[in-house]
Each structure stands twice: as structure tokens, then as C-alpha cells.
């Protein structure tokens, strides 16, 4: 189909009108970094409590004063982020720690862990989501992986038994301890997301992943698709990248390599591949359910596609003289047709 110069002019006018119209709709993909970050922070700061979400933070045995201080700081920062920007109700956040300082936490013993899971079992229903965070040291003796507690430790299999009794399949586990990679095999299950700070039980040095995961919760650029929400995979990817950069800057050999597993096959990956990442992409730390998150991610993808097409049209118009008239008109027509389809899909999404 050949387009006359008059039609080309009409298409360009339509394109410009499209840009104006699109500008009236918030488009995360086209916002400048500053406003996008400000808008994202503002929405999360004012998040109302979501009674469907529960969090359990277990700050285990430190072994040394320097780790006790570090783990304690990470625990309080994580709890503050969950209760603040991410809308977890205060009474839905349970904290077990090595040395409870007030009435808001209990001692991180195996018996207290079991008691807390029993309470969760009585409080949760199928529509709730529970996030479990392990902060501290872990161990692996070649056969069994454990997370260090005050007194006797609990193994990965024992945590799996506790998790399996919960009346919800919406479970996300962050084992951010050393030697945590071995937990993936035991905790892997359909509908679960398991994140570990290490890729095996042989990575036994104290980890830094927790620090950078908490940084992800407060960083606007962790919102990779700029949809105003932080998904589990976005927080994981951000923390994983910052962890690697930490070792590079320090000139040290990396002693931890985080993994994510969410398809139930018991094999973790350091990024979305091998079937992993789909559930984590549609699971958000703030209050989108799976259906809402999937819709939001799909719309964000459409907006990015619209931005790409608009950029290609602008470049094509600027390089018109490099093409024959026939080639130029054909290329421009194809881009406008694609743009019209994307704009129609965005409109149908309700954005």
C-alpha cells in the first residue's frame, strides 16, 4: 500500500496528536528518573496496612558482637520498611531475635520458631500471603543444612515441615544466611518462592545480601519496570547486582551468589531463567495480588513498547533522506500500524 505525501503528513499529524494524548496518561517508561522515583516513593510511603500479608523475621544466633549489631540493625530496618512503605500491619510482623530488647519480639529459639509457626497456622487462610526472612548464619555438614538459632538449630527439612502446615500456598522465603543455598532443595514446592544468599552449602562466609536486599526496598531504581511497585524478582535482582558490585569494588573474590527458585523443581538460578522467575515477577512486596500484578506488568510492557515505537518513528522521520520514497513510506506505515495496535491495547487495559 503506497502512501501519498498528503497521507504522510496526516500520519505525522496523527503521531503528534498521539504523543499529546499519551502524555495525558501516566507512563512510567517515559518519565524522567527524578519524577518517576518521587512518584514511586510517595505511593509506597502512604501504603495503608494490608491485613492479608504476614511477615516473620528470624534474626538468629550471631556468634560475635559485630554480627549481633549488624543483624540487629538489618532486622529493625527490614521491619521498618515492611511496616512503612510496604503496608504490612504492625501486628502481622513477627520478630524473633537473639536478644529481645522489648515486648515487640521474642527469643530466636527452635521452640519459639515452632510456636510462631503454630500461631501463623491458626491465623492464616488460603488468601493470605506470608513472607519469611532468615537473617544470620547457617551451616551445612555435607548432609543437612541448618539455620543457626539460640540453642538447638532447625534444619531445612524441619522448616519445610513447618511451612507445609500453613493453610496458604502464597509463601515467600528469604534465607539470607551463609550456606543457605542448600535450603532450596528442601523448601522448593509448587507456589513457593525461595531465595537464598548463597548457591550452595559450601559458601559459608558471612553474607552481605541482606544489606542490599533492604537497600532494594528503599531504592526507586529497584523498580525496573517503573510501574510503582517492587516485585520479588526486582528486589532479588537489585540486591544480587549490588552484592556482586560490593565484592568487585572491594577487590575480593565473591563468597556468596544468591539464587531464586519458584517453579518447584528444586533448582535455583541467579536470574529469571530455567523456568524460574515467573511467580516472583508476579508477586509483589506491596499489596498487589497475583492477578493485579500480572496485569500491571503487562501494561508496563505495553508502555515500554509504545515508547520504543515512538522513538523509532522519530528516528525514521529524521532520516527520511536516507531512504527512497517507497522504502520510507512503507517503513513509516508499518511503525504507525504497530503503534496504533499498542495504543489500543493500552486503552483496553484501562490505563
Structure description:
The chain is of the alpha/beta class. The protein folds into two domains: 42-288, Rossmann fold, CATH 3.40.50; 289-351. It is 47% helix and 12% strand. It starts with a helix and ends with a helix.
Chain-wise SSE layout:
Elements: H1 5-23, H2 33-45, E1 53-59, H3 65-83, E2 93-97, E3 106-107, H4 110-123, E4 129-135, E5 138-140, E6 145-147, E7 154-155, H5 156-164, E8 171-175, H6 183-187, E9 192-196, H7 209-218, H8 232-250, E10 259-261, H9 278-281, H10 290-318, H11 325-349
Parallel strand pairs: 1-2, 1-4, 2-3, 4-8, 8-9
Antiparallel strand pairs: 5-6, 6-7, 9-10
Helix pairs in contact: 3-7, 7-8, 10-11
Question: What does this entry show, briefly?
Answer:
The protein is α/β, with parallel strands linked by helices.
Number of strands: 10
Distance between the terminal alpha carbons, to the nearest Å? 32 Å
Helix content, binned percent: 40-55%
The low-confidence runs, each spanning 5 or more residues with pLDDT under 50, are 1-6, 15-44
| Shape field | elongated
How big a fraction of the residues is strand?
5-15%
**Overall number of domains:** 2
Order of helices and strands: HHEHEEHEEEEHEHEHHEHHH
Question: Rg from C-alpha positions?
Answer: 24 Å
CATH architecture of the largest domain: 3-Layer(aba) Sandwich
Amino acid at each position: 500500500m503506497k502512501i501519498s505525501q498528503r497521507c504522510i503528513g496526516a500520519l505525522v499529524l496523527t503521531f503528534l496528536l498521539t504523543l499529546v494524548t499519551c502524555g495525558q496518561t501516566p507512563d512510567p517508561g517515559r518519565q524522567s528518573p527524578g519524577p518517576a522515583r518521587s512518584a514511586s516513593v510517595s505511593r509506597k510511603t502512604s501504603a495503608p496496612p494490608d491485613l492479608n500479608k504476614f511477615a516473620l523475621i528470624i534474626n538468629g544466633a550471631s556468634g560475635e558482637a559485630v554480627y549481633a549489631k549488624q543483624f540487629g540493625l538489618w532486622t529493625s530496618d527490614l521491619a521498618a520498611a515492611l511496616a512503612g512503605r510496604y503496608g504490612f500491619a504492625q501486628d502481622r510482623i513477627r520478630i524473633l531475635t537473639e536478644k529481645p530488647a522489648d515486648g515487640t519480639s521474642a527469643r530466636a529459639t527452635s521452640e519459639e520458631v515452632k510456636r510462631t509457626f503454630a500461631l501463623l497456622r491458626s491465623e492464616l487462610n488460603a488468601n493470605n500471603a506470608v513472607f519469611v526472612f532468615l537473617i544470620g548464619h547457617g551451616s551445612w555438614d555435607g548432609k543437612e543444612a541448618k539455620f543457626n538459632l539460640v540453642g538447638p538449630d532447625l534444619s531445612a527439612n524441619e522448616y519445610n515441615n513447618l511451612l507445609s502446615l500453613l493453610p496458604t500456598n502464597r509463601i515467600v522465603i528469604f534465607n539470607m544466611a551463609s550456606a543457605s543455598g542448600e535450603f532450596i532443595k528442601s523448601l522448593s514446592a509448587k507456589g513457593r518462592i525461595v531465595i537464598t544468599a548463597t548457591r550452595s552449602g559450601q559458601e559459608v562466609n558471612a553474607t552481605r545480601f541482606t544489606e542490599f536486599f533492604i537497600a532494594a526496598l528503599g531504592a526507586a531504581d529497584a523498580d525496573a519496570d517503573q510501574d510503582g511497585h517492587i516485585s520479588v524478582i526486582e528486589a532479588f535482582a537489585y540486591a544480587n547486582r549490588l552484592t556482586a558490585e560490593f565484592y568487585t569494588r572491594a577487590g575480593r573474590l565473591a563468597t556468596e551468589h544468591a539464587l531464586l527458585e519458584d517453579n518447584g523443581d528444586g533448582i535455583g538460578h541467579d536470574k529469571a531463567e530455567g523456568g524460574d522467575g515467573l511467580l516472583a515477577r508476579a508477586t509483589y512486596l506491596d499489596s498487589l495480588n497475583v492477578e493485579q500484578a500480572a496485569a500491571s506488568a503487562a501494561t508496563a510492557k505495553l508502555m515500554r513498547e509504545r515508547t520504543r515505537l515512538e522513538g523509532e518513528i522519530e528516528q525514521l522521520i529524521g532520516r527520511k533522506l536516507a531512504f527512497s520514497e517507497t522504502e520510507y513510506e512503507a517503513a513509516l506505515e508499518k511503525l504507525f500500524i504497530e503503534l496504533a495496535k499498542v495504543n489500543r491495547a493500552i486503552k483496553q487495559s484501562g490505563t
